[in-house]
Amino acid sequence: MKKIWDVHGGIHPPENKSQSLSKAIVTAPIAPQLTLPLSQHIGAPAKAIVNIGDSVLKGQCIAEAVGPVSVPLHAPTSGTIVAIEQRTIPHASGLEDNCIVIESNGNDEWRERHPIADFRSLDKNMLIDIIRNAGISGMGGAGFPTSVKLDTRDDIAIDTLVLNATECEPYITADHSLMREYADDIATGVAILAKIIKPTKILFGIEDNKLDVVEGITAALAEHDFNTLTGLKTEAEVITFPTKYPSGGEKQLIQILTGKEVPSGGLPAELGIVCQNIGTAVAIKNAVCLDEPLISRITTVTGDAVNQPCNYEVLLGTPVEFLLAQSDYQANKSSRLIMGGPMMGFAVANTAVPIIKTTNCILAPTEQELPTPPPAQACIRCGMCAEACPASLLPQQLYWFAQGKELDKLEEHNIADCIECGACSYVCPSNIPLVQYYRASKVEIQQRKVDHQNAELAKERFEARQERLQRLEDEKIAARKARQAAAKLAAEQRGKEDERSVAVQAAVERVKAKKSQTETSTIPTATPVDSDDLVARAVAKRAAQQAEDAANPESKLIRAVESAQQRVTKSQARVVDAEASQDPNLAILKQAAEKAEAKLVATQQALNDFKEQNSAQE
Length: 618
Ligand code: SF4
Ligand code: SF4
Prior knowledge:
CATH superfamily of the domain at 18-363: NADH-ubiquinone oxidoreductase 51kDa subunit
Largest sheet: 6 strands, mixed
Structural class: alpha/beta
Bound molecules: iron/sulfur cluster
Number of strands: 17
Distance between the termini: 83 Å
CATH architecture of the domain at 18-363: 3-Layer(aba) Sandwich
Helix content: 40-55%
């Protein structure tokens, strides 16, 4: 027999499970309207991809996953989208959130499906894709996207697959009835998980208050050749252990079955372990083998205020009141409605809230059955809460810190490890609702983290803006300086131009005077007038050229480069001629050619510098 380990603490509340186990699972009828919150899982809410008025088929995707930690949502039946709006969601906060509302057309018509005859033909990535696209998240209550949990890092070897069939909370029998009636589906889901994870050990953990299913589960698992599926020597074992609440906590179950403790803040994968709920295993089987996404689940409806307690296979989105009506709910007898069990569940804000992927139970107790807790008294420091805590925390101290809003102290005392099982509250003789304090504190801690992240982001944005403004200011100053320098240069050039104009004018006057002298002379001359004209024109041309250069310094540099290039060409031609004629001046000519080349390089460099400077200023 496999060795098992005990976990610290735990309690033994009345089980109250037999009431809902007297009947087989009942398929609940389709409600006229189904309300589907876009956030039914841990992670980013899905994004609606349908519009009001759209017709949808059963199994059609109506909201897509957003980001890596998210899952899509599918229509649980065929009908019309009649609303996409804020509605009260099934959450302890009683808040509203975005929901898609489908009005059923009563046909329950499936979209086209592509069942797979043999999942063994698919590889790990294909199987994970199917699970992701089927919108599967953990059905044991946490709602973490299953594909994310299965897509483990390559550097972490997973050797153990744990199946959580503990269902330790009183009243809830959804998993128990699933094991009674769907053992083969569970085993097929386990086989698919084994193909993905390739573990060497498969540990199927069941509390000893469900011994009636052990034989069926063992036989169903024996139908699969796990060695072939994993390519390893893989052993699958069904392990029973003494009933104690809350043995179904993931960390607690892992410790019971393996003796390994998941460190504070750590994940089972760090110990080479992946843990999955058996409801999730069935959802995986349906998705992979039947091409059916997660659109329904098994939910227990129980408590003395319902006349027909049982387990329902119910479509997601079904209003709680509709499901209760199937069990002949007596509202006048009910003290309150609880979604989940009496230990970890929360009061339902109104009966219109829907069944979602994580709803394992609707509990309608009478006052006699679950009396309203008496008012809390002062803590008497009895220490019973610490004895009961399965996470080995100090609930009494956490209570003090929570009351004082000492969030840092709460974090130092590992409040994150609290699984909110309520065992401490259950044993507290002062009736202090300890777990309520921890839940509220966790929300505050989470909010503080979000606020801190937002503040950091705002700071980063502010600093980036300041940096950008400073850069723009620097650029403005540089541009202003460049403009001033250019203006100064232009003014200087204009001054020189004026001087040149005066000189040119004087030259022209001189030429005119000379010409008039010549015209009065009797001695004819060859071309004195033409010569002076040429000089004047040359001077004027040069002045015009200089004026143009002042206005456009680049053209001057371009001409300088062209001129240098011509000199290089000429000097090189001279060297070639000299070599051919064995001219004794060859060495001098070569030196001249080298100088011309150097001059060309320098001129070219000046032009490049000027261009770069110009483009920087622009
Ligand atoms: S069980 Fe209650 S009374 Fe006792 S130490 Fe804990 S909080 Fe105080
Ligand atoms: S609710 Fe938290 S502190 Fe209380 S017993 Fe459970 S794990 Fe411990």
